[in-house]
Amino acid sequence: MSGTHERGGEHADEAAEELFDAYLDGALAGELEDPEEFSRRHGGLHADLRRRIEVFHRLAIGKATPRTRTATRMRPPSTDGLPFERLGDFRLLRPLGGGGMGLVYLAEQEPLGRLVALKLIRPELQARARARARFRREAEALARLRHPNIVTVLAVGEERGVLYLAMELAPGRGLNEIQAEIASGETTVPLTESVRWIADVARALHHAHGQGFVHRDVKPSNIRIGPDGRPLLLDFGLARDLEGSGGTQSGDFVGSPAYAAPEQLRGLEDHGDGSGDVYALGVTLYQTLVGRTPFEGQTVEEVLEKILHTEPDFPPDLAVPVPRDLELVAKTAMEKDPRRRYPTALAFAEDLEAVLELRPIRARAPGVLRRARELVRRRPAGAATAVTALIALAVLVILFTLQERSTRSEARADASAMVARARGGLEAFETALADTGEQERVIASLNRELEGRFLEPEEDRLLDRMEDSVEDVRRERERIFHSSLDLLERAQHLDPDVAGVDELRAELHLVRWRAARIEGDTAAEAFHREKVELVDRTGLHQEELQGVRRLVLASDPPGAEFRLFRCESLARHVPGAEPRRVHVPLDGWPADVAPDAWALRVLVGAGTLAAEDLILSVAGHPIRDTLLVVETEGPVRRGARLVSVDGEPVRDLFQLAGLEAEPAPPGGRAYRFGSARGEETLLHGETVAALGLHLDDAAGLAEEGAVRARVFRSGASQPGLSQELLLPVGLSVRPTAAPLYRLASSGTNEHELERGSYLVVARLAGHEERRSLIKDGTQTLLEPTLRLDPLGTTPPGFVPVHVLSSPSGVFRIQEREVTSAEYLAFLNDLIDRGEDATRHAPRNATSPAAGGHWSRNTSGRYELPEGWHGDWPAFGVSFVDASAYAAWRTERARASGSRARFSLPGYDQWVDAAANLPFVWGERFRPKWTKSNYARPVPVPERGCSFPIDESSFGVYDLAGSLSEWIDSPWGANERMRCLGGGSWAFANPRFFRTYPGNGNEIDFTMDSFGFRLVVTPEDEAP
Questions:
Q1: What are phi and psi of 779, to 5 degrees?
Q2: What are phi and psi of 81, to 5 degrees?
Q3: Domain boundary assignment for the chain
């Protein structure tokens, strides 16, 4: 037994090394993957391997050097310079590239005077026995292979302790590069040529298989097309010797999942005949013909599900139609059952060559019986329709005609046995989940906190122990899950009428959904929930999925009106809409509004408009991407929309400024304006100002007043009315991409809630509106009493945040960052009082776009630099500076008789203000949804609240972007380090824009991208 264990340990170590190398390969190719996503994609990672990957990830993004930390895209290491002038017979000339295992150089083999590609093991891997073994295995594999379509090994050796591999120089481009150019329309490749490439590679694979090697990582990037059109198969680093001389055990798949055969993903036995390589080359052929892989999805779970259970299909509308025989060849190579695949890569090559020569192919389309079974299996819900009934009848006729009763009886018995085995798999999964469920919850909780706080040594040890103990269980659960689904598939193939398949399939996805919830994997959770709902036709599991619980709300003082909104992705309700989170009224959206449209939320009412009313359009124009005439002395009417300049559509002032900075054509620019009635005016002039026009966005025109608008009465005593009216003067408004539509029918204090997140809005005359967030509708019998504060409790510019069951409780936070004008007042007040303001002046603000350092005028007071705007957030501020400003605000409040206290937000407060989501707006990241480096054509600072999608459920703006903000929570164990939350106008890496603070720095350090906002404790709550 001990010998078996040792061999298993060796295989596990080998697999871990190869996974680590695969992660390095991706990073060095410019794709630095999030460790969590990498782990999920590979079915979980061993704790030690995961730690190594996370350490590399932190180093790669610069966390190891706080003073130089910046958002960046991982790139291959610098190739300036050479590690050696000579190595054995080889003189190194220049770098060619590199991967996870080695660096490749152009070299001259001096005795022969020929150029070669010299691959050296990476310096940091030289001391690792596993890495050296893998490098030698690649050399051994290539040395034994001699084929015109496999890169040739010329020499193998070790010099100065450095392993090297000299290969023939293979000029040309990767097939993946060519596929990308074909898909984008940059180039075209004749169908016959691309088929010939795949046929040649298939023959190369047959040669490798005949020599005892399976490649195990066939994909377009490992196929190089030379200038002469000859394809070369590269990278045998994952090759496995069929005679057992190395490689991982059969159940440890470490290649690229998109090209993995179903049996590899299930962890089933390797047939040892290269059938997985045939499948991967079939996927490569499909991708070359169609422009994408056959199985794609929004999540890794969805892709794997399709690979395992969905048949590939060729789109009918391809620019270059695929001949029927060629389509059949590709599908045969991609058969899910290896026994129905081509028996050898040679058979695959011969059929491709038959297609090219217009000869009959050996592959045959599925028989009538199999096609009928596939149709019944894939469309069970349509069995009641006339067409499906006829198909089912035809299947029965064929069954009775072509099969003997004894054969049918045996097939049914086998199918029933498979269903019983799948039931056993379900029970094993449930048992494993029950045994590790609590550990899974602790692991998920600690992993969420890894990026945000220092874990105590005992917490680290606890995490290590738990991850070690559950890692193998997780892998076994996944194997059981997919094997059980496979048994159900096979049972239906044998007997389409076998009982209990759909019910058992629903239960399998249900337990996988439970596991995803425990692990905090929201993408997998949504995927498996959808799968359960698809096959659970009786609704047996709906109560658990929906998690309906009773919610009873009360207020102090009593009498408040409550309205609830479900927090969901807009794309779920509006096909093709942005996949961001919005607030859906429980009764649905009003009939006369577009759910994906922006609105202007009234902050300060005037006339008949009240706070929280929503302006849906101004002068007949939408709120989003609209530039309107606010003042005019020319022929264009006030309220007209600027449509284009010189034919280029214009959406905002930043884009207009960019156009105006360009040289005007002879005769001046052409400005096209449009009215809500479709009338257009074309004017010519040097600049907009020369035409006597002042332009602003919809909010600017609305605050000017005296313009017609469509308004939804969401703040009035009788909500739900939409009407056209003339806007009064004196409004204060704010754009919002997730407006709250109050409906008269939805005001009640008792609700039956399904599982999910909800926003509760409470209103009572004479009191401030209270927004509360319920993170999960499954909280048992919630009966919270929401305290409502009198009007004026929260200072202007601050908003209250209340997350039910959150440790941060109720707090009030600024709706945007402290502005430059506000910080300027602080500095000059210090000067007026004779204090040293220099030590708190913004610094390190050296970007030309930012206007340079602040300076003093002749009177000794600070002033904003030329080109700097007072409503820009104050940046170049350290934690010490921000804390001094907070103390100054508190001192001013005390001087005016208030006991209010100002401070920087803590970690829990920051996370709660952002609604505790991966991003403020939900699961996905888009640079233009927040103030990021790619939000505008040219990155510059700009005023707060200018990105309405970057608004949390509480009305807090710019938590994702604009500036990285100081948080009063330790960053690590050093008290001189503090957290920083959010990205900034200078950043682009999505990681920095996540809700959970993933950055930090020393308290007296700052950059152009650092700023802050405050929280306030009202005087009746302050100490």
A1: -60, 130
A2: 85, 165
A3: 2-68, 86-168, 173-365, 372-402, 405-546, 550-592+742-791, 599-736, 814-1017
Whole-angstrom distance, CA of residue 373 vs CA of residue 378: 9
Report pLDDT for 955.
94
Angle CA 161–11–20, to nearest 5? 60
- Rounded to whole angstroms, how far apart are CA atoms 249 and 755? 42
CB 704 within 8 A of CB 630: yes
Residue 705 has pLDDT above 90, yes or no: yes
Residue whose pair of structure tokens reads 């069995």 in the numeric block: 383
CA distances 460 to 47, 452, 989, Å, are: 11, 14, 28
Of 40-54, 165-179, 369-383, 747-761, which gets the smallest average pLDDT? 369-383
Provide the residue count of the chain. Answer: 1023
Structure confidence by residue, pLDDT tens digits, 972-986 = 777 889 999 999 988
Residue numbers annotated as active site? 217
What is the three-state SS of 265-286? HCCCCCCCCCHHHHHHHHHHHH
Mean pLDDT of 623-648: 89
- What is the rounded CA–CA span in Å between residue 188 and residue 270? 37
- Summarised one tens digit per residue, pLDDT across range 797-850 is 999 998 776 666 789 999 999 999 999 999 999 999 999 898 899 886 444 344
In angstroms, the CA 164 to CA 158 distance is: 6
Q: Which residues contact 443 (CB under 8 A, 6 or more apart)?
A: 463, 466, 467, 470, 519
User: DSSP code of 782?
Assistant: B
Amino acid in the structure at residue 94: R
**To which residue do tokens 């403020």 refer?**
920
Helix (H, G, I), strand (E, B) or coil at 287: helix
| pLDDT over 70, % of the chain | 80
As a whole number of angstroms, the distance between CA 242 and CA 274 comes to: 9
Task: Give, in words, the CATH class of 814-1017.
Answer: alpha beta
Q: What are phi and psi of 402, to 5 degrees?
A: -95, -15
pLDDT range class, residue 1020, cuts 50, 70, 90: low
Eight-state DSSP code of residue 969: E
**What share of residues in the chain are helix, strand, coil (percent, to 5)?**
40, 20, 40
Look at strands 641-645 and 173-174 and give their pairing: unpaired
Position with higher pLDDT, 990 vs 197: 197
pLDDT value for 68: 28
What residues have CB less than 8 Å from 512, skipping those under 6 apart? 429, 481, 524, 528
**In DSSP terms, which residues pair with 569 in a beta bridge?**
581
pLDDT digits (tens, 9 = 90+) for 98-109: 655 678 888 998
Is residue 678 within 8 Å of 616, Cβ to Cβ? no
CB 200 within 8 A of CB 133: no
- Give the burial class of 122: count Cβ atoms within 10 A of its Cβ; 0-12 exposed, 13-18 middle, 19 or more buried: buried
3-state secondary structure of 557: coil
Contact criterion met (CB below 8 Å) for 563 and 789: no
| CATH code, residues 173-365 | 1.10.510.10
Fold of 550-592+742-791: Immunoglobulin-like (2.60.40)
Q: Which residues pair with 919 in a beta bridge?
A: 922
For residues 914 and 377, the model is more confident at 914
State the pairing for strand pair 554-556/785-787.
Answer: parallel
Class of domain 86-168: alpha beta
Instruction: Give the DSSP H/E element, type plus range, for residue 120.
Output: strand 114-121
- If phi > 0 it is left, if psi is from -120 to 50 it is alpha, else beta; for residue 129 that is alpha
